[in-house]
Amino acid sequence: MAGELVWIIDEEWPDYQVEEELLARELPDARIRHSTYDYEADLKAFGCRADIILAQIYVPLPAATIEKLECCKGIAVYGGGYDRVDTAAARQKGISVTNVSGYCVEDIADYVLAAILRSSKGLDGYGADLAAGRWGAQAVNRPVHRLSAQTLLIAGCGRIGLYVGERAEKLGLRVLGYDPFVGAERMAVRGIKKVSLAEGLPEADFVSVHIKYDETTEGFLGEEEFSIMKPTAVLINTSRGRVLREAELIAAVRQKRLAGAVLDVISQEPPTGREAVLHMENILVTPHVSYISAESYRDLKQRTVRNALAMLRGDSPADLVN
User: Alpha-carbon distance 173 to 166, whole Å?
Assistant: First the structure.
């Protein structure tokens, strides 16, 4: 495999040192080219001849693009989500597609627990009280409960959801789990009680969403579900924005039928800045950073390159999705 063309399509990473070091060791003659998400000109100029593609999760790779790839053996996606790649078109053309799942389990759990602690104690909500001279009990205008008196519902108990639940249970929270594809015994080992969505939502003080996004789960949670939740409940989403019906979530928070939400993902990514969800009181939006740490970056990049190398060699990659 001499002189392979590796095409990296990305606008996220500040550098590609991890990728370049691995590729230099395994493919010393490889040529590495880079493109932004606006890659059409590059596709025509050189991308069509790429032997392998490393693509950020935001990169659209529809059938029309895949059809123009002349000798590509694989598309290695940087992350768990691969919904912007036409995997069926790729397979029809003999192109494998991989993702990287589970690399940021610990990081997402840290984020969810931080969101729970922030919301439970209201740490950033006392500015007006300080300005008004209210101190001590005078500054507390809502019930504050210990974690051990509160309940977390995990919606989606795959690898990440189970780990989040296990960590939360160790902090003292009562943890419920919804997932029709995961058995009660597997949840119980992690300290999670299996429930239906209808059973879990009314009991939850926090709902953490880890539902896999595809056409069957788009708009999975909306008005019907929000209407049976506690008005004091907080929704946390680190899955995909479109798992929620965003306008209905905004309405529920605005009308105080939900206390609020912490969202690391929204329907439109990247946003324009005009999205209503970015300007809502009691909805905290972070810019899709729950997975980020120095350790997760390294793991993600290394696994993405290893998937690419396996596809180049004709081996079966560990993270094949098509």
Answer: 10
pLDDT-above-90 percentage for the chain: 91
Judge if pTM exceeds 0.90.
no
The CA-CA-CA angle for residues 143, 145, 149, to 5°, reads: 140
Q: What is the pLDDT of residue 163?
A: 97
3-state secondary structure of 48: helix
Question: Are 27 and 73 a contacting pair, CB within 8 Å?
Answer: no
Q: Is 74 exposed, middle or buried (0-12, 13-18, 19+ CB in 10 A)?
A: buried
The encoded tokens of residue 135 equal 């101190």
Give the full edge-to-edge strand order of the sheet including 283-285: 193-194, 174-178, 151-155, 206-209, 234-237, 260-263, 283-285
d(CA 222, CA 224): 6
Specify the pLDDT at position 54. Answer: 98
What is the Cβ-side half-sphere exposure of residue 320, based on CA atoms within 13 angstroms?
A: 17
List domains and CATH numbers for the chain: 5-103+294-312 (3.40.50.720), 105-285 (3.40.50.720)
d(CA 30, CA 53): 13
Question: What pLDDT digit, counting tens, does each position of 124-157 carry?
Answer: 889 899 999 999 999 998 889 999 999 999 999 9
pLDDT for position 2: 57
Q: What are the b/e assignments for 192-219, b being 16+ CB within 10 Å? A: bbbbebeebbeebbbbbbbbbbeeeeee
Kindly tell me the burial class for residue 186, based on how many C-beta atoms sit within 10 Å of its own C-beta (0-12, 13-18, 19 or more). middle
Residues 310 and 81: their CA atoms lie apart, in Å, by: 20
Count of alpha carbons within 13 angstroms of residue 313, beta-carbon side = 11
What are the angstrom distances between the C-alpha of 93 and each of 86, 88, 110? Answer: 11, 9, 40
DSSP label of 179: -
